[in-house]
# Entry
Amino acid sequence: RILLCLHEADLSKYKDSMRPLIETDMAETEKILVLEQITGFTDVSAFTAAVQADEIEVIDGGYCGNSSVEWAITSDGILVLFGEGTMPDYNSSSKKPWDGYQEYIYGAVVTGTVNNVGSYTFFNCRNLLVVYIEEGVTKIGEHTFFDCMNLVEVDLPNTVTTIGHGSFGGCNYL
# Structure
């Protein structure tokens, strides 16, 4: 896995409620804590099942375009991308289904049954702090995290073989 994270000295800018999440010791053996602190679960499948079973409060959700990839945003500000197959690519001017919630997205989880994270998926999600991408995802599209200026941590699995141009542009703390 590749782990991109912020140095603890730069944490003063973030909300006190998110501080425990960011200050986690990210040693290789403790990466599962990222998922647990974002979701309260140590397993992506269990978390996704809880979202689908309405055991976790979901504010909104649906499909990503015409794909079989679904999205849900929890009341805790976690955007979950799940389902199976290829996620569509977006561009800087196209509307993503969760655009109305961008300012409320603090964390994101992408399950390994999703082949890719589409271009511009998290574009301009300025409050996004932490992203957990499960083993199985193979591609990060162009400008996927572009202008996520407060993003401090992205956990990329070894299965990611392609990272598109400008994927982390404007990510000031990575």
